[in-house]
Amino acid sequence: MRISAETLVETEDEKGIYLIENGKEKRIGSTTEKIKFIRINGRDAIERAQTLNSEMLGNKKGITIMEKAAFKPISFTDYLNDSQQLKAEYGNEGVHITIEDNKNTIKLNGDYVDTFSVELILRVLPLKSGYSLQLDGFNATLESEVDIYIQVVELEQVKRGFEEFVDAWKVKTYFGETLQYYWIDPASKELLKQSSQIGEGLVLEFRRE
């Protein structure tokens, strides 16, 4: 299946980060996302910049760049406290990873997506009840290939804005053995909420406030 980003629009978004422990929640920070269209090496591309500000989780920033036509990855750069921790650059011979002064090249066979682009891919898929999709992914921070499995669970009402609630597709997504849930607005194609269990009785949520 060919996946195109042509229906995406440039956006900016902010969500609160909540830690839920045995049903009791605490706000522990905020995250922002900015999507913009760029040209790089003569190619139409998308840049997704996500920042995370939290005393508990740290101050992080990830910049993912991919081709607009088919989500083919170009690069991923990871920052901690404004200092570059890792850069992955995708090419025909594989992915080149730079961590400080250490460089490594990992060969990839076939078509892969960068795992940090999945939150964009979900917004352009023809989501409906019973829909599922499997993708080959690569996680640069783990320096490993990851099987990605996407499955629509149901429509569920979630918050879109101040006192505004909408029915959104709840999408179950496995990254290998790691499970994440995403809620996608079927009308605006916005990612409204994200949730994952990070420990026994512990859930981490990113959601509109």
Account of the 3D structure:
With 209 residues, this protein is mainly β. Helix content is 3%, strand content 67%. The protein has one helix at 118-124; strands at 11-21, 24-40, 43-54, 58-67, 73-80, 83-91, 94-99, 102-106, 113-114, 132-139, 144-161, 164-175, 178-184, 191-199, 202-207. Strands 8-7-6-5-4-3-2-1-15-14-13-12-11-10-9 form a 15-stranded mixed sheet. A hairpin with a 2-residue loop joins strand 7 (94-99) and strand 8. The chain is globular, with a radius of gyration of 17 Å. The protein starts with 10 loop residues before the first strand and ends with a strand. The mean pLDDT is 93.
Spatial gap, N to C terminus: 35 Å
What can be said about the biggest beta sheet? 15 strands, mixed
Number of helices: 1
Calculate Rg over CA atoms. 17 Å
How do the strands line up in the largest sheet? 8-7-6-5-4-3-2-1-15-14-13-12-11-10-9
Order of helices and strands: EEEEEEEEEHEEEEEE
Q: Which range best describes the helical content: under 10%, 10-25%, 25-40%, 40-55%, 55-70% or over 70%?
A: under 10%
The structural class is mainly beta
Please state roughly what percent of the residues sit in beta strands, choosing from under 5%, 5-15%, 15-25%, 25-35%, 35-45% or over 45%: over 45%
The stretches of 5 or more residues where confidence is low (pLDDT under 50) are none
Report the mean per-residue pLDDT as an integer: 93
What general outline do the C-alpha atoms trace? globular
Annotation, overall tally of beta strands: 15
